[in-house]
Amino acid sequence: MSKKKTKKSSENDLKSFKLNYLQFKVKVFLILKILTCNFYMESKFSLVKKLICPGIVGFTVISTTSKVPYSLMNTEIFTKTSNVLMIFGLSQIFSKVTAVSVYGKKIENLVSWFGEIEKEELWSILEVSAGNRLQRTLFYAKMAIMSTATLFFVTITLMASFYFMSDSLLFWTPFKSRNFEFFIQFFFLYLLIIFLIVVESLLLILGFFFVCIINVFLDAVRKLDDEACVRTSGGIMRKFYSQHLEILEKLCDLQEVFRGIQTCQVASNLLIIVGTLYMMQIYPHGFVNHIIFLNIVAQFFTICLFGEFIHSKTEQIFTALYLTRWYEMKKDDQMILLMMMKKTQKPVSLKIAGMYEINMQ
């Protein structure tokens, strides 16, 4: 009776996830289309369309850089330092938006794959509750995105207000009206923070769902420690091997996307941290500097946390495979298990610049 209830609950979770994720995926695809300006199927001017959003951010970088000579000659140290820090921050957003435009198709394929993973026959054969994990992951991902968006909007509102009250203009404009210049600055800051929220949200989605899928795969592997499961599910190791290869292939795509987006972030964040600490020392009561610093630390922590989760979870696959009842399997299945163990000896790690592993160690 309990098995029937569990199975029914799992089916309900899957149905709920399918519906919720479909709605979620439509929104993600719409955002990707806006970022890449790809609203039609035609491939004409695909490169030009991909460069539109990075071009908008690039224009703000040029505008801020053009303000530097004036800031160095005519303003106080707060505006000078803020101007330089803004250039680093905008350069980071520019690199992120460019990376998303370049890797838009890969991100789209990964998001589609997350929604199709629940159809995998392997989970139903082993009675693994994939639907429950996926549904919870979708909820946590939405909460993380909402929290990130709220934090960024609060930060940019405080920054814009602080710059206005301190009469600090960080963007060059051809207009003479001071009020209109501040209006343009407000507009640029909010536009840029929207770009940043979109990129960070995409990274959160990729991180959350990859950790979830690896957990589901681990749940399935642990089922092979059940004697009844091993005896009744002959030939299942081929499905395991196929699923494992697919996960590894998608992890390679994730590594490529992360490398493109995060390499410039880490490099520019180090400079921003140094500049922000300098500002905090000169203006200890400037709350905006403290908030900027907390945002940067939170970004670093999130990157390291996802890197650590993926590293540790892929590391656990080897142990889980070793603890199965491999000695009760057929020889062919044992050989497949051995090949899987060989592939999992070295854990998968997200890397910065293709060299430095991202984790908490």
From TrEMBL:
Any one Gene Ontology BP term: signal transduction
UniProt protein name: Odorant receptor
Family to which this protein belongs: Belongs to the insect chemoreceptor superfamily. Heteromeric odorant receptor channel (TC 1.A.69) family.
Membrane topology value: Multi-pass membrane protein
Subcellular location: Cell membrane
Transmembrane portions of the chain: 143-165, 185-218, 266-284, 290-310
GO terms of molecular function: odorant binding; olfactory receptor activity
Keyword list, A-Z: Cell membrane, Membrane, Olfaction, Receptor, Sensory transduction, Transducer, Transmembrane, Transmembrane helix
Highest taxon above the source species: Eukaryota
A cellular component term, taken from the record's GO annotations: plasma membrane
InterPro entries in the record: 7tm6_olfct_rcpt (IPR004117)
Source organism of the structure: Lutzomyia longipalpis (Sand fly)
One Pfam short name: 7tm_6
PANTHER family noted in UniProt: ODORANT RECEPTOR, ODORANT RECEPTOR 19A-RELATED
